[in-house]
Design goal:
alpha/beta; 21% strand; 9 helices
């Protein structure tokens, strides 16, 4: 885990591949964040690990990660922003996501449709296959302060004893409010970097807060 944290802290150079992909797809996740997530999933997660993304929108980011990753990749979305892309695609957002996962992601990603609160709560309570399997988590769901808090707190039981959390849209006051709440109430979380690069949208879009997670000793999962 130390090598992942070091990579995040020292990350500066954005590969033009990711810049080009972000500009062509107009993904809402900036190129720098996409590069970090993709390279962490590709280089540091194995077939026993899980990358979990809540709020995949059109899944441009998720599909690219699942294309390169060896780990299990799961996206959760309720498609509350489901609409026709009249200018570019004659598809609903859900159908576009499925197409992107099938083509860009080579079918390696798994879409779970529904409200993230219901799904994460169910997995935590009744589905041991998902508990403590997530090593890399990206939250980009709804952005009220309580949404943000729920998006992290409900995911904590699913995380491995050491994990990384990305939270999108750092420019939103609600994200900063929820971050302060989480740091006050969860000593197992540490804010390791805020990504709000100087080049704006094409690099880190609206910015991300990145946490490391370390489960407290009295809560460690049994070996």
């Amino acid at each position: 885990m130390d090598d992942i944290i070091e990579k995040i802290k020292l990350f500066k150079e954005i590969d033009n591949y990711y810049v080009g992909y972000a500009m062509v797809t107009k993904t809402l996740i900036g190129a720098g964040t996409m590069q970090l997530l993709t390279e962490i999933a590709r280089d540091h997660l194995n077939e026993f690990d899980t990358y979990l993304e809540v709020g995949c929108y059109q899944a441009w980011n998720f599909s690219l990660i699942s294309h390169f990753a060896k780990c299990k990749c799961i996206a959760v979305d309720n498609f509350s922003q489901n609409f026709k892309e009249n200018n570019n695609y004659d598809l609903s957002t859900r159908d576009l996501v499925l197409r992107n996962i099938a083509t860009i992601g080579r079918g390696h990603g798994n879409l779970v449709e529904g409200d993230f609160r219901d799904i994460l709560s169910r997995w935590s309570a009744r589905d041991p296959a998902h508990r403590t399997s997530v090593k890399l988590y990206m939250y980009d769901g709804p952005h009220s302060t309580q949404d943000q808090i729920d998006g992290i707190e409900l995911a904590l039981p699913l995380l491995q004893d050491k994990a990384i959390i990305f939270v999108d849209d750092w420019a939103s006051p609600a994200v900063k409010d929820s971050t302060r709440h989480l740091l006050r109430n969860h000593e197992e979380l540490e804010l390791i970097r805020v990504l709000d690069g100087p080049r704006g949208r094409e690099s880190f879009n609206q910015g991300q807060a990145v946490f490391s997670f370390g489960r407290l000793k009295d809560e460690l999962s049994p070996m």
